[in-house]
Amino acid sequence: MTDSRALMHQAERQCQRRGVRFTPIRRRVLEMIADSPGGLKAYDLLDRLATEHAAARPPTIYRALEFLIDQGLVHRIESLNAYVACPCPEHAHGFQLLICRHCGRVEELHLDDVNAQLAQRARDLGFRVDRQTIELLGHCEACLQAVAGKQ
């Protein structure tokens, strides 16, 4: 789970440096995502936000998510159609996600050599990469140990 207090402080500074508005709704959506050990789906976010803001509707969530993704504060987990906080939004390079199939925990990796190899191979083939998503689905150490302990 991401340290949400540190992440919020970092998000505020980053938005201020970039001259973009970190509105209360954007802040709250990021807090909800950061407080979750795994990804949250947009409608889960909407349900949670609606308890605090009666006027919250799907476009509210999707606009907030689009902003947070654009600012590098949140990643979309393509395979789950969910969102997870980026623990290091200052890292401008590609990333990889380890996703536990059992508990839903998500860890972010930054294997720059893998990104460089993929980018070079794409260039060699005359291909321009617009977005890269690498997701590794499996089981985290805690879940593997829990299963082993039951045997």
UniProtKB/TrEMBL annotation:
Residues that coordinate or bind Zn(2+): C100, C103, C140, C143
Keyword Chaperone: no
Record's cofactor remark: Binds 1 zinc ion per subunit.
Family annotation (InterPro entries): FUR, Fur_C, WH-like_DNA-bd_sf, WH_DNA-bd_sf
Keywords per UniProt: Cytoplasm, DNA-binding, Iron, Metal-binding, Repressor, Transcription, Transcription regulation, Zinc
Protein's GO biological process: negative regulation of DNA-templated transcription; regulation of secondary metabolite biosynthetic process
Keyword Electron transport: no
GO molecular function ontology, one term from the record: zinc ion binding
GO cellular component, one term: cytosol
Cofactor section: Zn(2+)
Pfam families on file: FUR (PF01475)
Compartments in which it is found: Cytoplasm
Lineage: superkingdom: Bacteria
Assembly and binders: Homodimer.
Protein family per UniProt: Belongs to the Fur family.
Protein name as it appears in the record: Ferric uptake regulation protein
Organism of origin: Halomonas heilongjiangensis
